[in-house]
Amino acid sequence: MPQDEQGFEDTAVAHDLYGHRDRLRQRARKGGLEALPDYEVLELFLFRTFPRGDVKPRAKALLTRFGDMAGVLGASLEELQSVPGIGEAAALDLKLMQEGALRQMRAGLRKRTVISSWTALLGYVRVMLASEAREQFRVLFLDKKNQLIADEQLGQGTVDHAPVYPREVMRRALELSASSIILVHNHPSGDPSPSGADVDMTKQIIEAGRTLRISVHDHLVVGRDGVASFKALGLM
Q1: Residues 158 and 222 both lie in one domain
Q2: Are 131 and 224 in contact (CB under 8 A)?
């Protein structure tokens, strides 16, 4: 193909791609982001990482690999980079989107009594853990007013086990001057139903806290299928 024809074709393709970007931005402004499907929200976000080119294949590849937006944002940096076309910069940008959402939700919890903001708490732990590929054990440390002091990861393991040490949980609670705690961990299988090992471990932590007058309000198990509460299930 002659040079001028090739150049004209490249220009036409570039113009069409930029036209698509402009049209998508206009739709977002007029109809609101909530009206867009997941792949178009991802496209809009990836425009910032990839100033040129068609990002729709990348957006759809992410959703094919991880299922939905929550799965994409919950994936690790390494998992995101396993998707064709997603390098370190794009993976980090996607994790920043999740971190921004978590910080906003965490700030809201800090300003309110966690026990009276249960719906917000369940939303927070689902965003944080529902799509994690490995089991992770976290503890929410609360003050005397049941307000959030800190949310920390105290254990991470395999797809079906995260090591937890009751003495380490209580040691950290004492360091933070926490009056009570909420235990949280995820089941990568998707089913949040507590296992026998979960029940035994919870009893050990409750017993360790009893002599220190640090109470365990609940133990939440997070999966893609929902969140199970030990207290609601009568397990504590």
Answers
A1: yes
A2: yes
